[in-house]
From TrEMBL:
The keyword Ion transport does not apply. InterPro entries: 5peptide_repeat, At2g44920-like. Keywords: Signal. This is Pentapeptide repeat protein.
């Protein structure tokens, strides 16, 4: 009996959550199932029933109280998830831009996540806030680019040219160590892992002054 009561309550709760009509239909549907369960239940100790009721009523209470929360969450997340795709578009994410020329352009806020950009030219472009997360940027040219607030974490940047880049507030990972040059770059407030930064500061090309901002490269990295 307890099971059928619980199942009725749970189903009523979930029907309620999905705005289906009242529980009368739910209990009709449950009748055959609960009778088949009754024979099993005759073996079960009565002592567990009280606990069962408490746990199960808690369960249906949770079902009831979580349902609106989950509904609200999916409503709230829906447009966001869509926005990531249709709002600014996926832009260039996952594309192979090897050897292409993106120089002297405006790509502010664009998504270059996981691009393959071997030798791709981004020189003197506006790359503010761009995402290059997990991108393959071997030998890419970022010289003189405005990459403020851009994300370069988990990239491959072997041989990349960061000469005179404005990368204030940008995010770098270990691959910053692999670039061909960062002379004249402005890295003010850039996020660089401490271990990486220590090694970056040892580089001979950590020198010069950024022609755009006037920042001293070494000072901008706060190298000792
Ligand atoms: C990317 O494009 C270049 C040039 O078209 C090509 O040589 C290379 O094989 C491509 N790489 C991949 C992984 O598709």
């Amino acid at each position: 009996m307890v099971k059928s009561v619980f199942l009725t309550a749970a189903l009523a709760a979930s029907s309620h959550a999905f705005q289906l009509p009242a529980s009368t239909h739910a209990s009709d549907r449950l009748v055959p199932r609960s009778t088949s369960l009754d024979s099993e239940r005759s073996q079960t100790a009565d002592a567990t029933d009280a606990a069962d009721v408490r746990i199960r009523s808690l369960g249906s209470h949770l079902t009831r109280s979580l349902a609106p929360t989950l509904a609200a969450a999916s409503i709230a997340l829906g447009p966001l998830a869509c926005g990531a795709v249709s709002g600014g578009g996926m832009d260039y994410a996952n594309l192979n831009l090897t050897g292409q020329d993106f120089g002297n352009g405006n790509y502010k806020g664009k998504d270059f996540t996981q691009i393959i950009a071997k030798g791709t030219i981004f020189s003197k472009s506006n790359l503010q806030g761009c995402r290059f997360y997990k991108a393959y940027l071997v030998n890419a040219d970022f010289s003189g680019a405005d990459a403020r607030g851009a994300a370069f974490e988990d990239t491959s940047m072997d041989g990349a040219n960061l000469r005179n880049i404005v990368a204030s507030g940008s995010y770098f990972g270990q691959s910053l160590l692999d670039v061909e040059s960062l002379e004249g770059g402005d890295f003010t407030d850039a996020q660089i892992p401490p271990k990486t930064l220590k090694l970056v500061c040892d580089r001979e090309d950590v020198k010069g002054t950024n022609p755009t901002t006037g920042a001293d490269t070494r000072d901008s990295l706060m190298c000792l």
